[in-house]
Automatic annotation (TrEMBL):
One Pfam assignment: Gal_mutarotas_2
CDD domains the UniProt entry points to: GH31_glucosidase_II_MalA (cd06604), GH31_N (cd14752)
Name listed for the protein in its UniProt record: Alpha-glucosidase
Domain Glycoside hydrolase family 31 TIM barrel: 244-576
A GO BP annotation: carbohydrate metabolic process
All residue ranges annotated as the Glycosyl hydrolase family 31 C-terminal domain in the record: 585-695
InterPro entries: DUF5110, Gal_mutarotase_sf_dom, GH, Glyco_hydro_31_AS, Glyco_hydro_31_C, Glyco_hydro_31_N_dom, Glyco_hydro_31_TIM, Glyco_hydro_b
Signal peptide from the UniProt entry: 1-22
Gene3D superfamilies for this protein: Glycosidases (3.20.20.80), glycosyl hydrolase (family 31) (2.60.40.1760), Golgi alpha-mannosidase II (2.60.40.1180)
Organism of provenance: Terriglobus roseus
Ranges for domain DUF5110: 711-783
């Protein structure tokens, strides 16, 4: 057992020789320990067997509260077993050496994380230093530009309006201080829950260590052990909450511009989409629909029949999303209700002298809600009342870093005052220094909860530009004001993958690039790739050429339309994957290593071989765009282990290899005979499906309001000999919260290849009470090594069809499940 005054401990990982702990006391607790050395206290708490919270302070402990972490998770406690130098759980051991030297190991004794030096305090700021191995890789931190792997880079967390950001830009819009560490085939996550300006260095200062720190606030971080990446994602969702399931229509194609103006232009775009039969579900309005750019107003000259326009769009099966910037125009005495009611309720931020802070944004002088007050968030939510009543479907929280035009810092003075008045927090006044990085999160929360209060059983749809860890509970997001360049297209995949690994699974990038005008081929290729990403929104800046799918003539339009149509055929799969995300935090866009964590011999992420261009859409689809999308030379495709099928043709694409090496020459020698060389073509995006997948698909529709005609398809991609397969389909009404009360449909399916070459497909019993649009299932089977001529369903013979390389049968949905045999 630990003693309250321990005289000696081991310098862990360095030596087994006892070293005196000068002025250090270690005290066990029911769920961890505290240790004090030279006036600094370290507290390690086991929240669960594989989840730790680490806090450190001088003098008194800081306030125990969080904007990011769920209260139930933060206060969870696991029982631990004390050791002579720390404690252990069933998953982890924690050891404390001299100078509060912290080491965390797994139950097999592998060091997962180890301090390299004691915490470095500089005034109110500090840095935490950890040892870094040669084969250690880092992912997450939101939508930071650059490569997928953060190793060797450094970053600042400070939400910043950065129009036209480039690959080297940092910081940009979000501060998500969460990263996943992958080394030697083991993974863990770290959430550094500090809302001040923070920094992360993953080996730039020293290749032997990484560090994170802040200019102020608490040393407060969470250690979430895997060892598999999926387990880390589940742990992060447990800690900060999963993203709620968005409405089904939000997974359709979305068309936007800064700005469609006047209203006749927006209606013309809607009519053109329907005339050309380009499936679409949402249209967006940027700030020019407002009167003098004042949020929560409508320009009655340019949009004279706004309510009627919204209703007309709804009749044409379009959902309208409007911008609602966080600032409020400083316009007294003109009947501007947001200003008048906000002033009356004392809802705006203050200067140090107590006067209301005023900064310039789009409407000119503007004031800013103090969202750290719960009552202010509730007030802000009421501002959506008229738009909700008119039928506006979603809202766009922009400029919420917060952006202010007056200063080179692009935000308000750091001494601007916030008056925290929030359950679970001490009631106090603090500076913008502490609140800046959570301002966007709290804006999103105000919008989400406000719209939910106005439509209590409907899923709010809020998109935010700025946020913090946990902000995914309230809003989807996008990567901000990107540019119309091939390089920005290339950067989109790692950005969305890292956003997904930071909790923001429901994310996208402005298709075609916001700043600048894309050449036709770039817009076409971007639309192709975006068809396989969570949010497919085509958006462009004022003064650029139009981005709509038809703008470059019929040849380009035909290609673009084809990929948008394929997205709609895949909506059952997209929605099923999205529902999984809403339960377990697994991102929709996944790096390959998340699905195949042991595909390399040395445990390094397989994505380092592919260059990060390939990505998984859910567990079953692999999208392989050109890593240099503007180039015409052939490029390599490296498939993960197992059988793979070409999505477009159904042909077997080859068998990926395991045991891949990182060194390029050795890798090429190993893969020379099995790698796939692809020739870039404008009209082609290579897409593959995992052998062993069962992919749900539907007939083509023009919007999610339209009921598909025909059966739901379950396309079975047979695995290698002796393997099994699995898949599922999930659906509900697509818009309400009734699914939380059992109003959903879920069916799981499996398959197996028998010894005699026959194939069995098992459809599980239906879960949930919702009645889906389909009454029949079409089972398609690809990859059989023999000709299949007979089929039975629950022992009864049924007709079998064969065409285009697959066989199929059609059966009614049996709520009790069915067993299908093909031979």
């Amino acid at each position: 057992m630990l003693r309250s005054n321990l005289c000696c401990l081991f310098v862990l990982g360095l030596s087994s020789v006892p070293v005196a702990l000068a002025q250090q006391a270690v005290r066990p607790t029911a769920s961890g320990l505290t240790a004090t050395s030279d006036g600094v206290t370290l507290e390690v708490t086991a929240l669960q067997a594989d989840k730790l919270r680490i806090r450190e302070w001088r003098s008194a402990p800081p306030e125990d509260a969080s904007w990011a972490v769920l209260s139930a998770s933060r206060t969870s406690r696991a029982t631990v077993t004390a050791d002579s130098n720390g404690f252990h759980t069933s998953q982890l051991s924690v050891e404390v050496g001299s100078d509060l030297h912290l080491v965390i190991r797994d139950h097999e004794g592998h060091i997962l994380q180890e301090d390299s030096t004691p915490a470095q305090w500089r005034g109110d700021g500090f840095h935490i230093y950890k040892k870094r191995g040669d084969n250690e890789h880092f992912f997450g931190l939101g939508d930071k530009p650059g490569p997928l792997d953060r190793a060797g880079q450094e970053f600042t967390m400070w939400n910043t309006d950065d129009f036209g950001w480039q690959e080297s830009a940092d910081p940009i819009y979000k501060s998500v201080p969460f990263f996943m560490d992958v080394k030697d085939g083991r993974s863990f996550g770290v959430l550094f829950d500090n809302t001040w300006r923070t920094s992360f260095d993953f080996g730039r200062e020293s290749a032997q260590e990484y560090n994170f720190g802040s200019q102020g606030g608490p040393v407060d971080y969470y250690f979430l052990y895997g060892p598999e990446p999926k387990q880390v994602m589940a742990a992060y969702a447990w800690l900060t909450g999963p993203a709620p399931l968005p409405p089904l229509w939000s997974f359709g194609f979305q068309q936007s511009r800064y700005t469609y103006n006047p209203e006749s232009q927006l209606l013309d775009v809607a009519a053109h989409l329907r005339k050309d039969k380009i499936p679409a579900d949402a249209l967006w309005l940027d700030i020019d629909f407002q009167k003098d750019n004042m949020p929560f107003t409508v320009d009655s000259v340019r949009f004279p029949k706004f309510p009627e326009m919204v209703q007309q769009l709804a009749k044409d099966h379009f959902h309208l999303i409007v911008i609602a910037d966080t600032h409020i125009a400083d316009k007294p005495n003109i009947g501007y209700a947001p200003y008048d009611s906000g002033t009356a309720g004392d809802h705006f931020l203050k200067n140090p002298d107590g006067t209301t802070y005023v900064g310039k944004v789009w409407p000119g002088d503007s004031v800013f809600p103090d969202y750290t007050q719960a009552r202010t968030r509730k007030w802000f939510g009421t501002l959506y009342k008229d738009f909700v009543a008119q039928g506006v479907a979603g809202f766009w929280d922009d400029m919420n870093e917060p952006a202010v035009f007056r200063y080179p810092s692009k935000t308000m003075p750091l001494d601007t005052q916030h008056r925290i008045d929030e359950p679970g927090f001490a009631k106090r006044t603090t500076s913008h220094n502490e609140v800046h990085n959570i301002y966007g999160l709290l804006n999103s929360q105000a919008s989400y909860e406000g719209v939910l209060a106005l439509r209590p059983n409907e899923r709010p749809y809020v998109m935010t530009r700025a946020s913090y860890a946990g902000g995914h509970r309230y809003a989807v997001t996008w990567t901000g004001d990107n540019s119309s360049t091939w390089n920005h297209l290339r950067m989109t995949v790692p950005q969305l993958a890292n956003l997904g690994m930071s909790g923001f699974s429901f994310a996208g990038a402005d298709v075609g690039g916001f700043a600048g005008s894309p050449p036709p081929d770039l817009l076409t290729k971007w639309l192709e790739i975006a068809a396989f990403q969570p949010i497919d929104r085509d958006h462009s800046a004022k003064g650029t050429r139009m981005h709509e799918p038809w703008v470059d003539g019929p040849e380009q339009e035909a290609i673009r339309k084809h990929y948008i149509e394929e997205r709609y055929r895949l909506l059952p799969y997209l929605y099923t994957v999205a529902e999984e995300t809403s339960r377990d935090g697994m991102p929709m866009v996944r790096p390959l290593f998340m699905q195949y964590p042991h595909a390399t011999a040395d445990g390094s992420p397989v994505d380092l071989i592919t260059g990060g261009a390939e990505f998984m859409l859910g567990p079953d689809m692999l999208i392989a765009p050109n890593p240099s999308p503007e180039e015409v030379a052939q490029y390599e495709l490296h498939l993960p282990p197992g059988a793979w099928y070409d999505y477009w043709t159904g042909a077997r694409a080859g068998v990926g290899t395991g045991g891949q090496a990182r060194d390029a020459e050795v890798r090429d020698a190993l893969l020379e005979s099995k790698r796939i060389m692809l020739t870039p073509e404008l009209a082609t995006l290579p897409v593959y499906v995992r052998g062993g997948a069962i992919l749900p698909m539907q007939p083509l529709v023009q919007s999610t309001d339209e009921t598909p005609s025909g059966p739901l398809t379950l396309r079975v991609y047979l695995p290698t000999a002796g393997g099994t397969c699995n898949g599922s389909v999930y659906t509900d009404d697509g818009h309400s919260l009734n699914y939380r009360n059992g109003e959903y449909f879920r069916m799981n399916a499996t398959c197996a290849t028998e010894a005699d070459g026959s194939i069995s497909v098992s459809l599980g019993a239906v879960e949930g009470r919702y009645k889906p649009w389909f009454k029949q299932l079409r089972i398609e089977v690809l990859g059989s090594q023999q000709t299949l001529q007979q089929a039975t369903i629950d022992g009864k013979a049924t007709p079998i069809q064969s065409s285009n390389g697959f066989v199929s049968i059609t059966t009614a949905v049996n709520p009790r499940g069915s067993r299908i045999s093909l031979r």
